[in-house]
Amino acid sequence: MKRSLNILFHTIFWFWNFTFLFFVCFWLLPTSGLFLIEDTLSGLIPLDFLLAFIGLIAIPTASTFIGLRWFRKQPRQLIRLFYGVESPLFLLCLLRLFLLRELTSASFLILTIGFISMVAFFGEIILDRQQIIAAEPAVNSHPLIAHLRLTVVPLMLIGGLYVGILLLFFAVPVAINLIKGFFELYWLRELRWILDDSLIEIFWSIIGYSLIVFSVTLFVFMPSALASLYVYTSVKSFKQSAQQLSHKRALQVGIATVTAWVILLVSVQHQPQVKAFELLEKPATTESERQELLKQSDLIEKGLVNAYLSRYRYLSPVNKSNQIQSIYDYTFGLPESINQFLQDQFNYLISPFLYQGSYSDADKAEKLYAQFFDLPIQKGEQKAILHAIQSTADRDEAKAGLLNIGQKKVWLRSQQINITEHGDWADVELYEIYDNKTTDVEEILYYFSLPESAVITGIWLGDTGNLDSRFPFQVSPRGAAQKVYNSQVRRVNPVDPALLEQVGPRQYRLRAFPVPPPLTPAEKRSEVERPTEMHLWLTYQVMRQDQSWPLPQLTEKRNIFWTGKTQRIYNGKPVKGNNPDWLPATLPATTPAPQTTHTVDFDNGNPIVAQPLVNQKPILPSGKRFAVILDTSRSMTSQHQSVINTFQWLQKQGFADSQLDNNDADLYVSATGKVEPQRIDDISQFQPQKVAFYGSLQPEEMLQQFERLKGDTAYDGIFILTDEGSYELAKDLPNVSTPAAPLWMVHFGKTAPAYEDGLLAALQNSQGGVTNSIAEALQRMALQNQLGETAINVVDGYVWLSQKTTKTAISNADLTPIAARQWVQKLSREINLQQLDQLDAIHAIAKTHKIVTPYSSMIVLVNDEQRQALKEAEAAADRFDRTVENGKENLTQPMNPLHVSVPEPGLVMGLIGVGFLFLIPRPKVRINR
User: Fold this and answer.
1) Sign of the C-alpha dihedral, residues 509, 510, 513, 515?
2) pTM, to two decimals
3) What is the largest CA-CA distance in the chain?
4) Any domain includes 383
5) What is the number of structural domains in the chain?
6) CA-CA distance, 474 to 668, in Å (whole number)?
7) What CATH number does residue 765 fall under?
8) pLDDT tens digits, 436-482
9) Are the C-beta atoms of residues 438 and 596 closer than 8 Å to each other?
10) At which of 732, 753, 787 does a domain end?
11) To pair with 825 at 20 to 30 A between CA atoms, which of 239, 259, 584, 681?
C-alpha cells in the first residue's frame, strides 16, 4: 500500500506539472504569452492581469523546481506541496484573473488568512525536510520559531477547513457530472473530431485534453486532500510547539490568535452602505438633524461609494447568489428546501465577497450622493471609481466624462498663439497639437471663458499641420450640432469631429475627437500608415483691455495635460518653463493704440456701435429695490466667508435702509428638502454667520422659490449669490421664465463652467449677466441705466449701442463678427425664443457672419455621412434643443458569476469554470451580465 501511494503521489505531481509546463512552453507562450506581455507594456491590458497570468506559469514552474531540487525521493512531501501550496495558489491566480475585482477590507482579510495559511504550510514542509536531514525532532527548534508556529497554526487550520469546505460544494457535483459525461460518451464525439485533424493538431489536442481531464479529476479530490493535509499538519505543529513550550502556553497563544482574528474579521464584515442608507432614509427637517448628518459625512460618503461600486467590489448581492442551488437541483434533483439550505450555507461562508443589498442600490447611492454632497458621485469620487474600474478588465467610455477630469491621457505637445493687432481690437489664433498617450482613441474637452464681448470666429481639425488639408467648420443650430457630434463619439470606427459651443455669457465648451493612439507594435510590424496626432486651430476676435490681449481662461479640462516639454510659442517667440496653466491671462500689445469708437453697418439699417468708456468712474444705482437670493447648498460651505463679506458690504452701502434716496434689498434664503425658504425684507436682521449649508440646489430651483415668495413685489435687479455649482446636476428646462428684472449670477470663487440653456436664456433676455462680485453687477446695471435703452451691453471697457453715434467713429467692416455677436444679444431680448422661425432668424445671423452664439455652434465634419446626419438634424423641430452634458459615464458592469438566470436546466461551475483547465461538457445557461 505504501509503495502504491508513493507511485500515485509521484504520478499526480510530475504528470500534471510536466504536462502543464510542456503545454505552456511549447504552445501557450509562443502563441499568446509574448503578445500578452507586449500588449501589457503598451497599455492594452492592465498590469494586474499580466501578473496573474505570470503567476499561473510561475507557480507550477517553481513547484517543479522545488520538487526536483529537494523532494525527488519524498513523495509524501510532493503531494503536500501539490495540494497544500501549489493548487491553492494556482486557483487563487485563476480567481484574480477571472473573478476577483477590487478588494474590500473583508475580502482582503480572507485572502490574507488564506495566503498566511499557505505560507505556514509551506514552512512546515521545509521544517519537516530539515528535521529529516538533521535527524532532530521539532522540540529542539528555537523558542521564537515555536511561538511563531503557534500564531499561524490556528490560521492554517481555519484556512484549510474553509477552503476545503468551499471547494466541496463544487467538487461533489463536478464528480457526478464527470461520471455522467463519461458514460454519455461525450469524449467519443470529441475524439472523432480530433482524429480528423492533422498529426500536429492531434498531438496538441491530446496534450490539452489530458491536462483538462487530469486537472478536473484532481479537483474532485482537492477539498478532502487539502483539508486533511492542513488539519493533520496543524495538529502536528501544535503538538510539537506545545511539547517544547508547554500545553498551557500553546493554548494561550492559540486562543489569543483566534480571538484577535475573529474580532478583526467581525469588525470589517460591516458594510457601510447599510448605515448610510439608514441615516439618509428620512429627510432632515430641523437644524439639529442637519448638523448631526453633516457630522457623519465621512460614514455617509463611504457607504454611498460602496453601494455605487458594489458590482466592482463584490461578486454578487446576497439575494442574487443562487448558483449552488441551481447546480444541486440540476445534478441531484434535490427538494427545494435542501437546495436552498445548501445555498444559504454557501452564502454564509463567502459573505465577505457578497454585497448586502441589491443592484438598484447603485442608482440610489448616486442620487443620494448628489442630494447630500451637491455634486455628481463620478466627480466627487473620481479617484475611487477609477481605481475600481482598473481592478477589472472594464474601461471607461470614449467620451470625456467626469471620470476624465484632470486625467493625463492626451499630451499637449505644442501650443502656438498668433495675434494680429488692429489698433484696439485683434484677431487671435490658437493652434495646438495633441499626442495620445493611451492605446485607445480619446476625446479632449476644454471648458474655458473669454471676455463677454469676444466672439469665436473659427475652428478646424487636421491630421497634420497643413492648412490646406485641414477640415473646416460649419455653423449649425446648437441642438443639431450637439446631437450629431455625440453620435460620432464612439470607439468603433471613430471619425474626426469637433464641437465648439457657447454655454454661458462668457463660457465656452470645446470638444474634439478622436485623438488617435500611437501605432501598436503589431501595426509597426505591418508598417501600417495612419494619423497618430491631432491638430486643432481656434480663432476669435477680442477688444484690447489695459494694453493687453485677453486669452481663453481654463475652467475645466478632461484627458488633456501638458508638461515642461510642451512647446509654447507666443507671437513667434518660444516660451520656456513649465507653465501650470493652459494659457496666460493676457499677452501684451506690441504697439500702443488708443481706444476708438467703431461702427458696423448691417443690412437692417441699425448700426452697432462700440464706444469706449473713458475715465468712467464706478457708480451705484440709487433709489432701486433689489432681490438677493442666497444659495444654501452644501458646496457653498467653502464660500461662507465670502457670503459674510458680501452682506457686510451691502449694509455698509445702505441696502438695509429703505429710505427713498437709498437702495433697498430683500433677501431670499433658499432651502432644500422639507425646509421652507425664507424671505427677509430687512437684511440687517440676517445673520450670515449662522447659515447652515446643506443639500443640493440648482439656480432654477432657487428662482422657483423666489417666484413663490416675492408676491407682487417689483424689483429692479435680481442677484443669485452662489458658487461654481454643479452644472452636471442641472436638468433640461428650456422654458425657464425670464424675470421682469435683470438676473445676475454672482459666483464666489470660480465661475460656473456652463449653464443649462433655459437659465442662459433668462440671463441674456433679462439683460443680466455673470460676475464674481455683487458690486460689479450693480455698477454695470447703473451705467447701463444711465446710458438708456439703446445700450446693448456695457462690458470690457466699451458700451455697445444699437444706434448711430455723434462721436467720431470708424466704420469697420472687419469688426463685423464681434458686432454681430452684440446684434444677436440685442435681438434675443426682443423676439419670442419659443418660436422656431425667430430662432432661425437669429441663427441666420450667426451663419452669415460665421460666429458662435448661445444658439449657434460650430461643428467640424469630415465625411458625407456626417454631413447628411447634420442636414437631417438641422431640419428637425428640436434643432435648437440642447441637452445638459452631465458627464456621467455609463460604465460596463462586471458579470455576476454566482447567479444563474434560468435555474433549470442549468449548471455553472463557478470556480470550476474560471479557466481553461476546467472546461467540461455542460448544458448552456443564460448569464446576467
Assistant:
1) negative
2) 0.85
3) 118
4) no
5) 2
6) 44
7) 3.40.50.410
8) 988 888 999 999 999 999 999 999 999 999 999 999 999 999 999 99
9) no
10) 787
11) 584
